[in-house]
Amino acid sequence: MKKYITTPIYYINAKPHLGHAYTTIAADVLARYYRQKGDEVFFLTGTDEHGAKIAKAAKDADQEPKIFADQTSKLFENLSDTLNFSNDAFIRTTDPRHEKTVQEFLQKLHDKELIYEKEYTGLYCIGCEKFLTEKDLIDGKCPDHRTAPQQQSEKNWFFKLSQFESQIKKLIESDEIKVLPQTRKNEILSKIDQGLEDISISRAGVEWGIPVPWDVKQTIYVWVDALLNYYSAPKMFEKENVWPPDLHLVGRDIMWFHAVIWPSLLLAAEEKLPKEIFVQGYFTVDGQKMSKTVGNVIDPVELVDKFGADSVRYYVLRDFPFGEDGDVSLERLKERNNNDLAAGLGNVVQRVLSMVKRYEVKVENTLSDEAETNRINSLTEDLKFQEALIEVWKKIAAINKQIAEVEPWKLEKEGKREDLDQFLKKCYESVLQVADLVGPYLPDTSEKIKSQTKSLKLVPIFEKF
Ligand code: MSP
């Protein structure tokens, strides 16, 4: 089976923070899991580089937008090395191949008379790159960015979104496009019930963008440009067979764009639709969404330097359910590293393998508990990463408990050699099973365990802090 999995493409107005890394870690776990299962995976991530927000960031940095974009985009691309992401492609919206596809796509909608010109006045939030209504504001400000939106009045090109209202509603209701978790699906449906209005898809006052092909004085609205990355990537990277997307991972601030605007654009162009949109929670710090604008960001590169990639990957997926918000703290990360990884997983591997070595047990790579593996794998497939990890760690605790109960060193003294061999063989198989199960989550650790099971050259896998 093919699996086309995407993350949002990230704004490059500032360097990546842990919230960005979070979504890509989750996507990476799924990509690795499906590859391990034998599926053909296309895992896409990248950067969103046009629009007013990036133009302003470049100006503030006193740089040309493209030069600025080249530099900051690299920081996102480098995260793949830092956090061991296995993305198959990294798309940049300033890539001329993407720009061309976007223009062709919009030209098609224009030819089909689904785009028209209209004078528009609205309140624009540059942070969100979207128009807000008075109802969205708190004390006159955007609640996410805590800045007052600007009044904008221009003649723009509009897409006939309203025309797709009942179709989109049916698709989401019937789960032809799955929106998960269920609470997010309900939110989307009730918002659709308030009615879809046509949306402006061009900007007259923004130079940093892709020109509207039939009106080059205007640029294409950055959100339309960005959503189309999912469409242009398979063409750019010669992977057209993966279309349509199987899973879009998104934060809840951008679920409307993905669940409503994106499929409407595809319907308009008579293209196939994405199958699932999974809306994850936010990282908060002291209860507030982690964001550059709020100034409470945690740098993933610094964390990895200190704790290692697998500790960070484990912490973010273990501490709270993927669909819900979670408050991050370095203290918790340290505890998880020391307790679950060093004292838990690391220790059990050392204990088992050192006994296998000491007693010269003839181990075999026999099949592990398949039913248990399937049960845990189906949690991963449902994006219940936290639950999957809890189950694996129950297994780790059970191995430890059995060792304490059986006391294999006594079996040796009592001359019960066969019992000893059998028991340690079972423990060894369990360790191999754990190495398999954690593979998608902790790829380095999994490899280290597997190589130590073969060589029996034992070195600690985790450090305590
Ligand atoms: N560029 C748009 C997305 C276009 S997709 C066609 C955008 N970029 S963003 O950089 O602001 O955020 C992208 C995603 O990063 C969010 O949807 C979410 O997945 C992730 N996160 C950003 N901040 C986050 C947290 N504080 N917590 C968890 N995830 C966060 O929106």
Give a verbal description of the structure.
This protein has helices at 18-37, 52-60, 65-82, 96-111, 165-173, 182-193, 222-227, 229-236, 255-268, 300-307, 309-318, 330-358, 370-381, 385-406, 408-413, 417-437, 443-455, and strands spanning 2-11, 40-48, 89-92, 115-125, 130-132, 150-159, 178-180, 199-200, 202-203, 211-212, 215-220, 247-251, 276-280, 283-285, 288-289, 326-327. The protein folds into two domains: 2-280, 3-Layer(aba) Sandwich (Rossmann fold), CATH 3.40.50.620; 329-455, Isoleucyl-tRNA Synthetase, Domain 1. The protein contains 17 helices and 16 strands. The structure holds 5'-O-[(L-methionyl)-sulphamoyl]adenosine. Residues 8-11, 19-20, 22-23, 48, 226-227, 229, 250-251, 253-254, 282-283, 289-291 line the site of 5'-O-[(L-methionyl)-sulphamoyl]adenosine.
Annotation, overall tally of beta strands:
16
Measured by DSSP, the beta-strand proportion falls in: 15-25%
Number of helices: 17
Bound molecules: 5'-O-[(L-methionyl)-sulphamoyl]adenosine
Mean pLDDT: 95
Main sheet summary: 6 strands, parallel
Structural class: alpha/beta
Helix percentage: 40-55%
Find the CATH topology of the largest domain. Rossmann fold
Biggest sheet strand line-up: 3-2-1-12-13-7
The rounded distance between the terminal residues' Cα atoms is 42 Å
CATH architecture of the largest domain: 3-Layer(aba) Sandwich
**Molecular shape:** elongated
Oligomer state equals single chain
Low-confidence stretches: none
CATH class of the largest domain: Alpha Beta
- What would you give as the CATH superfamily of the largest domain? HUPs
